[in-house]
Amino acid sequence: MEALISLIIIVVLLVLPLKFAAQFIGAKNTGFFNCLFALIVSALFQYGVNHFFPNLDNTYGWLVTVPVAAIAYMLVLGTSFIKGVLIAIVQVILAVLLTALVASLMAGV
User: Fold this and answer.
1) End-to-end CA distance of the chain
2) Residue 80 to residue 43: CA distance in whole angstroms
3) Is residue 20 part of a domain?
4) Is 22 inside a domain boundary?
5) Nearest 10 degrees: CA dihedral of 69, 72, 76, 80?
6) How many domains does the chain have?
7) Is Membrane among the key words of this record (predicted)?
8) String of DSSP letters for 35-98
9) Residue at 25 is within a domain
């Protein structure tokens, strides 16, 4: 039961920032399952890029990650590439803030 609750928390922590960012930027498809599918497509695209370019390190990897995520968001969420880039950036910022908030709540701070 704890594993299921943990999985639900992880999915919510991943999908909600994307959903809020997509609504904020003005994407067409901002439903929960659309955003979940966009994350899955983005992860598959990034896996493919990492497969073809395995030597990308942490310093320059984000230069490839943001446009690849933007392409996935553009295709699934129904937006332009520039809006996809903005969604990717806002999503990362919101995910970090939301994760820090949940971690501090779980730690009892």
Assistant:
1) 25
2) 19
3) no
4) no
5) 80
6) 1
7) yes
8) HHHHHHHHHHHHHHHHHH-TT--TTTHHHHHHHHHHHHHHHHHT--HHHHHHHHHHHHHHHHHH
9) no
Q: Are 25 and 91 in contact (CB under 8 A)?
A: no
C-alpha of 104 from chain center: 21
pLDDT at 35: 94
Q: Which two tokens stand for residue 109?
A: 């701070």
Q: What is the mean pLDDT of each run of 10 residues along the chain (109 residues)?
A: 86 88 92 94 88 76 84 94 92 85 82
Establish if 90 belongs to a structural domain: yes
Per-residue model confidence (pLDDT) at position 91: 86
| Structural tokens at position 87 | 């969604």
Q: Are 56 and 64 in contact (CB under 8 A)?
A: yes
The pTM score is: 0.82
Domain residue limits at 42: 2-15+30-107
- Tracing tokens 């809020």 back to the chain, one arrives at 20
36 token code pair: 């979940």
Residue 77 tokens, joined: 């969420």
